[in-house]
Amino acid sequence: ESICEGDSIEFNGSFYKTAGSYGFTYTGQYGCDSIVTLDLAVNPSQNILVEETICQGDSIVIGASVYKTTGVYENMFVNRFGCDSLVTLNLTVNPVYDTALTVSICEGDSTLMGGSVYKEPGVYSAHLSSRFGCDSLVTLYLSVYPKPVTTLSESICEGDSIVVGDSVYKQSGIFSNTFTSQFGCDSIVILGLTVNPVYDTTLFAVICQGESYYFGGQAYSSSGTYTHNFPSRFGCDSLVTVNLTVAPLPHVSLGNDTFIFSSEKLLLDAGSGYEAYNWSTGEATQIIEINKKLGVGKNEVDVTVTDQNNCSGSGRIVVTIYDGSTLPNDKSPMIKLFPNPTSGMVNILLEQVYGKYEVRVVSDNGSTVFSKKYIASSGKVMNTLNLSSLSPGLYMVMVISGSGVNTDKLVIQKGYK
C-alpha cells in the first residue's frame, strides 16, 4: 500500500502513517495460521515556497493563475504520487520609475545621466535600470545659465575711489571681480579704471603797470599770489596758483628841451638795459646823434623803449637847431658883458635869472667853444669867464635858462686892456 504524507491506513485495527512492512498472523477458516504482511509506502506531500520578484507591468504564472501584484499566494497541486503539493508564491513587484529631473547648470559646466554628459539646454530621455533591475524612464529637463562677463570702463579723479563689490580701487588698471549671479553662476565684472590727475600748477606772470591780468574770471592789477580751482579737461579740480608781478613802466628822460647850432651835434641817451628802442627819427639804438640833418628850427624827438617785461615807456625832448641866420632873440634874462672888447677875462651880469642856467660861447662859425652850467640863488648874478685861450674874433655869448635864451656879442682882442 502507499499513502500520502500526513495520511494513515488502517490494518488489522491499527492505523499506520509511516512507511514500512507490517506482519499480521491470524487463523484461517481451516484453522491454519495465515500471515498477512503490509508493505506501506508513504509518498511525500510537497510544500514548496517560491520567492519571486518581478517589475511593474510584468506577471508570473503559477499553474493556471497569473500574478502581477505583490503578495503571498498558495496553489494546491497533485504530485506524481497523487499527493497534494502546496506551492506558496511570495511575490514582490518592484516599481518601474518614470522620473522627471529638472536640472540647472552654469555655462561651461555639465551633468551626467546614464553615462552621457550633457552641456546644452534641452530635454533628454534615458532608459535606466533601477536598483531592482527594472527599466526606469528618466527625463532630464536641462537649463544652462550663462556666466555673464560685464566690462566697466570708469574714470575717476586722483584721490577719489570706486567700489566694486567689496573691493575699493584708487589706481589705474584692469581689475577682475567674480560674483554669484541670481542663478548661482559665476558673474565676472572686469573694471577698466583710469585715474585722471588733479593738477597743482604754479604760474608766474608779469604785467605792466596800468594793465590787468585776467585769471579765473577776475581782473588783477596788483602784484600778489592768486589761486583758483579750474576743471581740467578730464573734469577734475585743478588748483592753479599765479604769482603776479606788476612791473613799473620804464622811465625815460632825455633831459630838458635844448638847442644847438647847425654846426653842433647833440647826443640823446634813452638809458641802458632795455630790449628795444624806437626813436621817432627811425633809429633803434640806445644813443642817437642829433645834427643839422634834423632841420633848422624846433624838432620834437620821441623815443619809446621796451624792457625785458615787454613794458614800454616814452620820452620826448624839443631840440631847436639854429644856424647863422636864426639866433635866439629872447631878451629874458637880461645880459650885460664887460669889459667888451676883452683880451680874455670877461664879466657877465645877469638879471631875471632863476635856478639852473647855462652859459655858452659860440664862435662865428657856429661852434661852441665854451660851456658851463650854474645855479642862480637870486634873480641877479655875475659870472667871470676866462676866455684867454680863445683866438681873437667875434663870439656870441648865450645864456640859456628855464625862462628863455638871451645872447650878446663879445669881441676878443689880444693885448686889449
Structure explained in plain terms:
- There is one protein chain.
- The strands form 14 sheets. The protein has a four-stranded mixed sheet with strand order 26-31-30-28, with no helix packed on it.
- It is built from no helices and 38 strands.
- The radius of gyration is 73 Å and the shape is rod-shaped.
- 9% of the residues are buried.
- The chain has strands at residues 2-4, 9-11, 14-16, 20-27, 33-43, 47-55, 60-62, 65-67, 71-78, 84-94, 98-106, 111-113, 116-118, 122-129, 135-145, 149-157, 162-164, 167-169, 173-180, 186-196, 200-208, 213-215, 218-220, 224-231, 237-247, 258-261, 266-269, 276-279, 287-290, 297-306, 312-322, 334-338, 345-351, 355-362, 368-376, 380-386, 393-401, 404-412.
- The chain starts with a strand and ends in a 5-residue tail after the last strand.
- Strand 34 and strand 35 (368-376) form a beta hairpin.
- It is mostly beta strands and 417 residues long.
